[in-house]
Design a protein that fits this description.
By secondary structure, the protein is of the alpha/beta class. The chain contains 12 helices and 10 strands. The longest helix is centred in the C-terminal third of the chain and has 17 residues.
């Protein structure tokens, strides 16, 4: 069912669903995605109230964000099934589910959403050791389920691996690359994990730029201050747009019809560059 959308998914801001003030402030924020969190950000004794608050916030609407998702608790917790039932009955754009490790996990969550509106998407956290070994199989479920997007959970991965999560993230480079490859192979949108440093935006920008180089579509965020630099990093630059137009214009010339590779401004451009140029302009138009 999954198709890679040409839509901005540069920034996805987590908000505790139990924090009414934060949700109200978030309605005017420029994040592309708002994720109302019922899982990590909510204490056990506040889970049920947070669920009600999230559903009410979705019903009220008014978010500037293009998409609003709710992160549920896992099906192996006391709250997971009730979370999924409530979210499935709502008009949320997506449900984000935690700690997916196998293709069977995706099937279970998809079955729990059988009564949801047809456009509701299933998004999955990639944050366990087992998931790393099953990336392709998990992503392949996009062909037969609601699965359409992954969010990397680098903090949980670091905990499970007993690894140190540094700004350079050198330990996680192979995992991040493999995750992007698997997602791209099956048309799944993929968002980078959070940067825990929200006071030093230069550190954040460096990490976000690394994610963009890996090929991530965007990044998940923990603080509103991270939205602006994130949107900037994951948006086509003026130079990118100018190059895309040059490639498209050059391939449209009569003398280049039917060619697989041409010269554009002294550089070689192939049909794959033409496809990427069209996507760049489409993204720039959506973000305007």
């Amino acid at each position: 069912m999954s198709q890679t959308p040409v839509r901005p998914r540069r920034s996805a801001l987590y908000l505790p669903a139990s924090n009414a003030r934060a949700i109200e402030k978030a309605r005017g924020l420029a994040a592309d995605i708002v994720i109302l969190d019922l899982e990590d950000a909510v204490a056990p004794d506040a889970k049920e109230d947070a669920r009600e608050a999230a559903i009410a916030a979705v019903a009220q609407g008014g978010f500037a964000a293009g998409e609003v998702a709710v992160r549920a608790n896992g099906l192996d917790t006391p709250w997971g099934l009730a979370d999924l039932e409530a979210i499935a009955a709502s008009h949320a754009d997506a449900v984000l589910v935690p700690k997916v490790s196998t293709a069977d996990d995706i099937a279970r969550y998809d079955a729990a959403l059988s009564g949801a509106h047809p456009q509701m998407q299933l998004w999955a956290m990639i944050e366990t050791r087992r998931a790393v070994a099953n990336l392709d199989a998990i992503a392949a479920m996009a062909a037969s389920t609601r699965l359409s997007l992954w969010v990397m959970g680098t903090n949980d991965l670091a905990k499970e691996m007993r690894a140190q999560l540094t700004p350079e993230r050198e330990v996680f480079v192979p995992i991040l690359s493999l995750a992007v490859c698997a997602a791209r192979a099956h048309g799944v949108t993929i968002l980078d994990g959070v940067c825990n440093e929200f006071r030093d935006l230069e550190v954040f920008r460096t990490e976000a730029s690394q994610g963009a180089r890996f090929g991530f579509d965007g990044k998940s965020l923990i603080h509103p201050a991270q939205i602006e630099p994130c949107n900037e990093v994951f948006s086509p630059s003026d130079e990118d747009v100018a190059w895309a137009r040059a490639v498209i214009d050059a391939f449209a010339l009569p003398e280049n019809q039917g060619k697989g590779a041409i010269s554009v401004e002294g550089k070689m451009a192939e049909l794959l560059h033409l496809e990427e140029a069209r996507r760049t302009l489409a993204m720039a138009k959506e973000q305007a």
